[in-house]
Amino acid sequence: MTYADFMTQPRRRDKAATRAALLEAARLRFAQHGYDGTGVRDIAGDVGVDPALVFRYFGSKDRLYGEAVTVEVPAGRLGDPDRPITHITDGLLHDVVFADWEEFDGEHPLLVMLRSSGRTAIRDQLRERICADYLQGFAERMGGPDAALRAELVGALLLGLGVMRSLIGSPALSDAAFEETRTLVARMVAALADD
């Protein structure tokens, strides 16, 4: 059940629907206003419930944030050892930089987290998501004494492209098509990966 469906349904207590609606409202609020700019009362108000329900279902604003902005890394992204790293980064370029994540007001959850990265706990969570969930597999695939550094450079490239396109709205990158961008990114990644 979507947030819109929840809001138009007659009021009967449905824990799963209320919880899902709170998560959906939180995703939009956190994407638009960041952690500090979003209050529990705002989220509860968007759903039309008492703020106490947020604490009942999630325990705290921190836990709600953690659950709201967490998206699983697609299974098998690095699973095929014969798949070139440039092909893997193609998928990440699309997902992080070009995809429209409607539930996060158009941005990838990692970019949403960047808005609140001034908070230590969120910065730690962001580091874990990027370095462990995404880049550790790249480093293992690349091999060599500087593999971790090269993997983090690939991560910086992708995240930086997302920031330039989505948060800053740089003109050339904002106007560029995915196909045009992916060719140039593939060249840079190939140099780092020695693919």
From TrEMBL:
Residues 16-76 form the HTH tetR-type domain. It comes from the Bacteria. Residues 39-58 bind DNA. Keywords: DNA-binding, Transcription, Transcription regulation. InterPro entries: Homeodomain-like_sf, HTH-type_TetR-like_transc_reg, HTH_TetR, Tet_transcr_reg_TetR-rel_C_sf, TetR_C_16. Pfam families: TetR_C_16, TetR_N. This is TetR/AcrR family transcriptional regulator.
